[in-house]
Amino acid sequence: MAAPSGASSSARLVLLSLLGFCVALSRQESSSSTDSCGAAKLAVASLVPFDTAGFRCAANWKQQDFVLRYKNTGPSEWSFVLSAPDKGSYVAVGFSGKGAMVGSSAVAGWASNGRGTVKQYYLGGKSPDEVAPNRGLLKLVRNKSAVVSRSGRLYLAFQLSTDYPQPYLIYAVGPDGNLPPSSTLQLPMHQSMASRAFNYTSGMSSSAGAGDGTFPAERKHGLLAMMGWGVLMPIGMITARYFRQLDPCWFYSHLAIQVSGYAIGIAAVVLGFRLNEDGLRNVGVHKALGIGILAMASLQVLAILARPDKTSKVRRFWNWYHHNIGRAAILVAVGNVFLGLSIAQETNAYIVSYGVFVAVWVVAVAAFEVKRCYADDD
Question: Could you give the number of structural domains in the chain?
Fold first, then answer.
């Protein structure tokens, strides 16, 4: 039987790439956070000045690993515990009626030398000078606030006296290793911030200004990129390599699928450049890979325009270029889709769904390659 062709080696590379990304994702999930909504009990429950049993939990700002626990603990009383990585900076959560930072009030907390500090601030403007300490419209319950630093995380706990908190939460994290001075309590300019519409009944949140939040721009970008680069391109490759007996249908099908994937991919790239990148980790690598995929896909489109005749002596060099650039684009695209899902910290349903597609695609490629080998042997 004939030796396995280049596509069989490509299939093995795709499978190894998939396994590598799955291992990386699992390691990232296991090591990036020591607190999650899946925990049976709050790790610092004994150090919080109120009972935290039965609190609801929501991961409202996944890019910064913020976890919010809350509960209506009494008549006109709401209790909150915000958990975030302790990077030697402050963390803050504000409450707003319209999702705007300016004009809202916030609770900020930080830990220094084993002591925690909790202060209310009125966000009168966007510069540090306009953020006034010990002022604001929130009614904090006295002696019911605390900050605890434990196992690399900061826990900001406080109670508000209110019938119902305002519907928008403004999250902020300060610059690493930069705490407010004890003399003025002035907050340094935040390193990153986010505004989230929050439903206290369902625990669901969405980016402010995103309508009902069920389909934010980040998810549109991800789904477009997944469909264009990560689904249509691999399907187009299968059409071209394994269905040549259906001439000329295979060619027009391959062309239609790849052009559609290219158009959808361009839409994903344009939308991606318009996204707010505040707080996103590894987004530079993801963006660079996306630009690389766009460049390789553009070369493929140009290759169609410069396609030599079958009888031309340079046709075999064109075939080598077209086939291998396409395979490289698919490999990078699959990896970048998984990287994008990891950066966005999407739900496991998206990761598993795309993983199933890639696994099915790899099995299909392997099956077609075996069939080709037997056909060549005959």
Answer: 2
Residue (of 36, 80, 34, 279) closest to 172 by Cα position: 279
Evaluate whether residue 168 is within a structural domain: yes
Phi, psi of 108 (to 5 degrees): -120, 150
Question: Could you tell me the CA-to-CA distances from 28 to 154, 269, 284 in Å, in that order?
Answer: 20, 25, 17
Reported pTM: 0.54
- End position of a domain, from candidates 205, 240, 258: 205
Query: Quick one: 155 exposed, middle or buried, by C-beta within 10 A (0-12, 13-18, 19+)?
Result: buried
Residue-range definition of the domain harbouring residue 107: 54-205
Per-residue confidence of the chain (378 residues) as pLDDT tens digits?
444 444 444 445 545 555 555 544 444 444 444 688 877 789 999 999 999 999 999 888 888 889 999 999 999 999 999 999 999 999 999 999 988 889 999 999 999 988 999 999 999 998 899 999 999 999 999 999 999 999 999 999 999 999 999 999 999 999 999 999 999 999 999 998 888 888 888 777 766 544 333 456 777 888 999 999 999 999 999 998 899 888 889 989 999 999 999 999 999 999 888 775 544 567 889 999 999 999 999 998 888 888 888 788 888 888 888 889 999 999 999 999 998 887 766 657 778 889 999 999 999 999 998 888 887 655
Single out the residue of 172, 184, 186, 175 nearest to residue 129, CA to CA.
186
Do 194 and 228 fall into the same domain?
no
∠244-249-250 over CA atoms, to 5°? 40
- Whether 224 and 159 map to the same domain: the answer is no
Question: Residue 253's domain is classified under what CATH number?
Answer: 1.20.120.1770
Residue 15 in any domain: the answer is no
Is the residue at 197 inside a domain? yes
